[in-house]
Amino acid sequence: MRKCKETADGRAYPDEVAKWGLFELRLEGPASGNPFVEVELVARFESEDRAFETRGFYDGEGRYAIRFMPDREGTWTFKTRSNRDGLDGQGGSFSCVAAAAGNHGPVRVAQRFHFAYSDGTRYLPFGTTCYAWTHQGADLQEVTLRTLASSPFNKIRMCVFPKYYDYNRDEPELFPFEGSLEKGWDYKRFVPAYFRNLEKRITELGHLGIEADLILFHPYDHWGFATMGPEADGLYLRYLIARLAAYRNVWWALANEYDLMKGKSIEDWERLAGIVENDDPYGHLRSIHNCMGFYDHAKSWITHCSIQRQDVYKTAEYTDEWRTKYGKPVVIDECAYEGDINWGWGNITAQELVRRCWEGYVRGGYVGHGETFLDPNDVLWWSKGGRLRGESPARIAFLRKIAGEGPSEGMTPISFGWSSWDLPCGGKEGEYYLFYFGFNRPRFRDFSLPADGEFMCDIIDTWNMIVSRLEDSYSGGFRIELPGEQYIALRLRRTTIPGPHSFPPSLSWA
To answer: Are residues 319 and 432 in the same domain?
Structure first.
């Protein structure tokens, strides 16, 4: 925003906004009664043949706002509708200019199983989990942001509601509704300061290039937010979407471990999903996450699979099967965490977490990170954020670099028949092959690739983060000598492709 128009009747809005930026119209209106539910406010935005309608919201103390994310350069006009005279029929215009460097727009599904930003730039999700980081004190939130700034993570799973669970028994400073645990909550009166802090952190994540995967409901609660009832659930979702949908780096995760919320049926989840889908004019990514039994990820409102492991030992190994079953991107948001706490989901080694990340990537999916190391102050990254202590983030950064050098359309699982039973491979047939040996440690392996081209070979030590280029080129059937160590990958890239195009040895990653 470079300039702001202000009028005598209390309106304020920018006259210029970048593409996929945040336009905000501020209005003054009634503060009496309960404006959160009694005042209706909608605006229609138009530019040539493009038109959007978006809800406004009450921001407290007689202030109202309508937010909009323009997706086309040029002149946009707007006009409000309201059941209050002072808010109804307010119009104006603004210019949408080119997006700034680094602003690629919202993330969308691309190539069926992968992701890209709205401008076509490839997006490779390398996520982490910090459920309750925005419910901590301001100082700890700042530490978390600084940690994220130097991490490889470009997506973060985080709860809108506070969380109450092991290692997270603190009461937050702010709550989303007026009231208290002792006296009860007024689900028809929101606390704007609570949501302003969330917006501030989403904005800061956006500056770091990190997508905010917002968990809308979860079962880890002792305040009653998990059992508010249908009316309150709907009011909450509509208010939240009105405030947040115009942020380009927002994803909607309908629930974390939906199947532990026994008070909600599948019909309830479908109804809530309909609210999210209908009220979000921009079509942000949508998912729902399981504890034990999967939701039906084939549902049309679900854009990608958000998966928690169901097997104590295996999860990433099923990635290619889930791709086939659901026909959508597979994001394993929780495969267990690097750490040393009492629970089995939170005490795997860094080597095993990194192995699962590689296994999922080679099979055409994406595996998320988490960290749960015991701390005298119960500041565990998975819940409260703070600082990372584990060994996996550096290796995940290395994987992210390797992934950025892979096929631009994403990884596709590749089968070599019976010889693939112990060696997953992904890439692009005839051009790029990435094999991952995991905890196996062979001293050699025989390969058979197309004989009409030559391939250069890299042996990748995924734990020590070393890429060793072999001097020879390879074609047809051949043998590769291997180091006999665990966590080795082998990459074969064709030096030329039949036709006028050369295969690039490296691609930048976003």
So the answer is: no
